[in-house]
Design goal:
396 residues, alpha/beta, Aspartate Aminotransferase, domain 2, 2 domains, globular, binds (2S)-2-hydroxybutanedioic acid
Length: 396
């Protein structure tokens, strides 16, 4: 038969955890796997600003006709401003354009195909470690993948090793950087580190591709955009992938953008024509709903301010959970060992737990996290921090 030679591949290591967690009957289970925000009730709610925008759309939308290859122009405008800043010179001089994509993952796939088709022979450099899907997306597009060191086996950010490798990267290659809330480690570069990375990117003539999936979850909506705006202001060409999954809670509505910054408007038009052409072969035109919601929220001062407050609430809760877990680990003499949890930013913590310890946590304590030791801090139930700390103490 035609399909005889087809074998089975393992399920996705992150998404697979959702099913395993759901099937665990233990009422004391912890879901620290897939990167979704949870509130104090353990729910991933739809933000109120999103609900209000959706209601407006239901009442006012009068067609479901296709939106163009670059998506909704209103969305493109507001996402450009959210990422690059409303006072961005690039926007004012028409040197930056957003192409709407199905989620941040879609933006990454579009970037990968753009590199493969329009910049043939260029490799991409990923942090070690990185989000596992970065590896497979670029490989699927036929782009050669290499790595620069980021966090070592001692679970510390190693900026010197990172810079030393970037200094050896062949001219013209693409370097993928995490704007904030590094996935999976939670370790972010400080401003002086970013400045040094910028110097290397400039001197080696590398093309930066900045993945910006967690805007607002690190130090704040504006603060988290600092490195993106620095690179966009200082370099002639930058690619940025933006996601609305987390900060708008639009996970399943697949809302994101690939923002391209170029030296002049003519080049922007060239590149955007290629992106629309590539996107046509990938998903034709992007899904509308999530982007229409984002455009509605960011285009209305009241909704925008409500949304910004909601993002800040999520951010502060994550910060409190980090502090709370460290406090809960104190009685076990583990606060120092896990002090990095307080330094890391965003949803994720590279805990430093080994795959065997992660397995033990899952098998004996129903604590679910990625085998790399990545825990989604935003999934912790604050009322059961003691229980989580006790489970961790039992496996280390
Ligand atoms: C994660 O890393 O858990 C999230 O980005 C969700 C995903 O798609 O993997």
């Amino acid at each position: 038969m035609h399909f005889d030679a087809i074998g089975r591949v393992p399920g996705d290591p992150i998404l697979g955890l959702m099913g395993a967690y759901a099937n665990d009957p233990n009422p004391r289970k912890f879901d620290l796997g897939v990167g979704v925000y949870k509130d104090s009730q353990g729910l991933t709610p739809i933000p109120r600003s999103v609900k209000l925008a959706e209601q407006r759309l239901v009442d006012s939308q009068d067609t479901k006709i296709y939106i163009g290859g670059h998506g909704d122009a209103a969305f493109g405008k507001v996402i450009n401003e959210l990422v690059l800043g409303s006072d961005s010179k690039l926007i004012a001089t028409q040197r930056a354009g957003a192409t709407q994509t199905p989620g941040g993952t879609g933006a990454l796939r579009l970037s990968a195909d753009f590199i493969a088709h329009c910049l043939p022979g260029r490799g991409v450099w990923l942090s070690n470690p990185t989000w596992p899907i970065h590896e497979t997306i670029f490989a699927a597009a036929g782009v050669k993948v290499s790595h620069y060191p980021y966090v070592g086996s001692d679970n510390r950010l190693d900026v010197e090793a990172m810079l030393a490798t970037l200094n050896q990267v062949p001219e013209g290659d693409v370097v993928l950087l995490h704007a904030c809330c590094h996935n999976p480690t939670g370790f972010d570069l400080g401003h002086p580190d970013w400045q040094r990375v910028l110097d290397v990117v400039r001197s080696r003539k590398l093309l930066p591709l900045i993945d910006f999936a967690y805007q607002g979850f690190g130090d704040g909506l504006e603060q988290d955009a600092w490195a993106v705006r620095l690179f966009a202001a200082e370099l002639p060409e930058v690619l940025i992938t933006s996601s609305c999954s987390k900060n708008f809670g639009l996970y399943r509505d697949r809302t994101g953008a690939l923002i391209v910054c170029t030296q002049d408007t003519e080049k922007l038009l060239d590149v955007r024509s290629q992106l629309a052409h590539i996107a046509r072969n990938l998903w034709s035109t992007p899904p509308d709903h999530g982007a229409a919601v984002v455009a509605t929220i960011l285009g209305d001062p009241e909704l925008k301010s409500l949304w910004a407050d909601e993002v800040e609430t999520m951010r502060l809760r994550i910060a409190q959970l980090r502090a709370g877990l460290l406090e809960a680990l104190q009685p076990y003499g583990l606060a120092e060992r896990f002090a990095h949890i307080g330094v890391q930013r965003g949803m994720f913590s590279y805990t430093g737990l080994s795959p065997a310890q992660v397995q033990e946590l899952r098998d004996h304590h129903s604590v679910y996290m990625v085998s790399s030791g990545r825990a989604n801090v935003a999934g912790i139930d604050a009322s059961r921090l003691d229980l989580l700390a006790e489970a961790i103490a039992r496996v280390v």
